[in-house]
Structures are given as structure tokens and as C-alpha cells.
From TrEMBL:
One of its GO terms (biological process) is regulation of DNA-templated transcription. Transmembrane segments: none annotated. Keywords: Cytoplasm, Methyltransferase, RNA-binding, rRNA processing, S-adenosyl-L-methionine, Transferase. This is 16S rRNA (cytosine(967)-C(5))-methyltransferase. NCBIfam families: PRK10901.1, rsmB.
Amino acid sequence: MSQSRQVATQVLYQVVVKHQHLKQALHNNIGTGISDQDQAWIQHACYVSLRHHFSLQNRWQKFTDKPLKDKWVSELLTLSLCQKFHMSTPDHAIVDEAIRAAKKVKKNWASGLINKVLRLAMKDVDYKIDSEVIEFDHPQWWIDLLKKDWPEHYLKILQANNQKPPLWIRTVHESQIMPGQQHPNIKTAWLLDDNKASQSDELMNGQFSVQDAAAQLAAKILNPQAGEYILDACAAPGGKSCHLLEQESKIQLDILEKEPSRLKRVEDNLSRLNLSANRIILGDATKPEDWFEEKEYDKILLDVPCSAAGVVRRNPDIKLLRQAEHLIHLTQLQQQIINRISPLLKVGGQLLYATCSVFRSENERQIKKFLKANPNFSEIELHDDFAEQCAYGIQIITGTEQMDGFYYCLLQRTS
């Protein structure tokens, strides 16, 4: 097991110290010689360690005389306490395996420190939570922003962000019956029991797709009709594109994505589900002059790049990688994209602006700014029982009906 500890520590080190995304770090570090069971353990341990990284670090830091210079060892200590407090591993196994993992990477000098710090931290019955960062396992700027944006819901959002995410799948037809619980409003969305899902033949054969119910709302709102010419801008990984084609195969769908590797994922998803698009475009949403063919669209789906603050439970590394100043760049990019893409819409056509964020600066404030500058557009009001009404558009609060946090606003070009 010490190899699994060693690999998991390396993954955490890549994320926390080298600022690599968790999925990429897992992909880079899990080699061919590791059994399926160990791979599953490494993945689980890394996700849980990152979900609770702030509090786990705090638990061992109080037992070191000065800040630990060796960041690899510090991630090993964090992982070890994750096993104690979130994975119910026996204490003696935690200490022994941690020392072995350190020795494997030639850090014999750390054995005494690991032994002392872990034993003290695991026996610390008087552990006191002395800050919101430790209590909620989020950066302070994030907590403050949620309090400001959602004073009535911030606690629910923070708690939901630290939960293991549920497994939602998307069926091709609303009438397709699955072993699980159907969403009352989004009929293609089924909530599966994680344990049963692995035994489901349909899931193993790829006959449907894994996609959160909140993300499935996009196709329901856009409601594609036969003969319509539709653009899905910023389309990767292609879940919403596929859903539009599943709902109505007789649309002409242009799929746009600027990253070649991400576009490949869209193509893989289309081919797996036996779906075809009108055009698959490698291009930049801020530069339509490079790829637009002068024929205006009936509908546009604009799922813009965002902070991903609504899908943190699926991507716990975001809490450590995202900084407050990133929002400035993101909101500028979002504004640029909507301003460049909206003129490609027919008069009378509809544009759906979407994000997987819960921050108002990326959502309703963007729409307010856009409508002020573009009086030839107006909002078509959306109403869903499970969503919060905003000044413009609707917000699904993370955790509501077990969904991710998503924002939607439907606009129409009026002249």
C-alpha cells in the first residue's frame, strides 16, 4: 500500500504546489503497474484530501515548530490525516505506511518528524476550529463572496461543495426508464445509486451519458426544433451538444471549441452516441470572423468559460487553484464572448447564456451589462421551482435537489 500512498502524495503535490489540475495529475501519475483497486483508492484519497485540505493541513501544522520546507512531506502528512479523519484507516497503519512512502522517495530524514507529528495530530482531542477557512474548507475570499452574493444560501453552498457528488445520467428519451430516481422536472435526468451503477449494463455499454441534471436543463430551455440552425459555442466536452442532437436530430448544429484536445473529446462523445453535427469548428468564440459563414443562427448556446464555482464537489482542486483575481480575467472574457457571438443571431432568435458558477459577477451582472449596451436584446424570463430568480436569469444553488450550481439566462434578439 505504501506505493499507493506515494502516488497519491505525488498527485497532491502536483496539484497544490505545481498548480496542475487534479484530473491531469491523476492521469500523469497513475501508471500501468497499479491495480484497479489501488487506482480507485488513490483517486478517492486525493479527492477527499483536496476537499478538506485547509482543515487537514491545519491539524498537523500546529505540531511543527516552524513551517515545513519540504512540500512533498507536507502533502504526505495531509493525506495521512485524511485517512484518519475521513477514511477510517487504523492509526498504526497510517504512520507505518507514511514512513515507508517517505523512505521510497529517499526522504529517510523525515521518518522521525512524520512519526511525531502524526501521532500528536491523531490524538489531538482538543482540536479547535479557529477560522472560517478551517470550518468550511474554502479560501476566505470565496467564503466572503458567497456571503455577499447569497446571504441566505452561502452555508448550504459551502456544505454541498464538500460533499461527494451524486451520479446523474442522461437518457436519450424522456420515456426511457432507468434503475434510479427520475428528476421531477428534467425527465432525461436520472439519479443513480453509485453502487448499483457499476453493475448497470447500459452504463458499461455507454448507452447513455453521465451528466448532472443542472447541465441537462440547457437543452430543455433551448428546446431545439427540426430545421433550426444552432451554434454551441465553447462546446467541450460536448455533453450539451449531444443532448441537443438527442432531443432533435433534424437540427443543423455547429459545434465550436478552441482547444484541439478538448475538441477531440467532443468528437469522441458524438461518435460514441452515433450523433453527427453540421460543422465541428476549431475556433475562438472571441474571433467569429475566422469561422463564421455569414448565415445567422436561430439559436445559440453560450456556455462560457467560468470559475466553475458551482461544480467544486466534482473538482475540489478548484478551491486551491482558483484565486480571487482570476474572476477579473474571466468576467472580461465572458463579456467579450457574449459581445462577439450575439451579433451572429437572427432577429427573433434566442441565445442561452450559461455558467457552472454561483458568483453573481459571472452571471446576472454580466447580463445586466450586456443588456445595457445592447438594447436590441431582451430577456425571456425563465421559471423553475428549484431555481432562485435573479435580477436576470435563474440560479440553481449547489446541492438543491442534489444538483450542481448552474446559472441560465435566455435572451432574444428583438431588432
